[in-house]
Amino acid sequence: MKKSVLWTTGLLAAAATAGADDAAFERVQYNAYYNSLRDAAVAYDHKDYARAFELSRRAACAGDKNSQSIIGRMYLLGQTPARDDLAGYAWIKLAAEFNYTGFTSLARKLEDSQTPEVRQVANARADALRKLYGMGATNMSCHGESRHGAYLIDSVVCTPKDAGGGEFQLRRCADDVEKRQE
């Protein structure tokens, strides 16, 4: 519990300073961003979880809802450096900020399995993540699409803020911003 409170407090402190700091964002070429999403999927398919986590985490911090869901699932499945059910839930809850059934139904199932005390801590983590990596904090724009031409929305497509000159403006992960400032 103490570790969770410290982790959440650290995220909240980072959120308070990130808005005023240009170091919180980076400019990335369009193709580099899309290639990193593809490379994350390929790494995951090849069970290179360390690489998949690294690439997905970067996109998750930038606000990509699919990547946030993937990071959450990786935490829950122990495919991260350390299994963390609360972090997994928090990332999935953050992905569910975009009202897509694939995200919201999993978040509800996880909530239903938690005690009220655990849910309170887990929701505090999700709120801290939202302040840093939610749609408002990252300027990410997401919409649902139907890949198969039907009326059923079966995928979520997120696009970062256009920075001009063939580049996107991406939100950095808070701990990466801290490392850059040291």
How do the helices and strands line up, and which of them pair or pack?
Elements: H1 2-18, E1 25-29, H2 30-45, H3 49-61, H4 65-77, H5 85-95, H6 101-112, H7 116-133, H8 135-138, E2 141-145, E3 155-159, E4 161-164, E5 167-171, H9 174-181
Antiparallel strand pairs: 1-5, 2-3, 4-5
Helix pairs in contact: 1-7, 1-9, 2-3, 3-4, 4-5, 5-6, 5-7
**Sheet bearing the most strands, described?**
3 strands, antiparallel
Distance between the termini: 28 Å
- The average pLDDT value, as a whole number, equals 86
Q: How many β-strand stretches?
A: 5
Strand content: 5-15%
Q: Indicate the low-confidence ranges by residue numbers.
A: 1-20
What sequence of helices (H) and strands (E) makes up the elements? HEHHHHHHHEEEEH
Structure annotation, total helices: 9
Helix and strand composition category: alpha+beta
Task: Kindly provide the radius of gyration, computed on alpha-carbon positions and rounded to a whole number of angstroms.
Answer: 16 Å
Give helix % range.
55-70%
Number of domains: 1
Overall geometry: globular
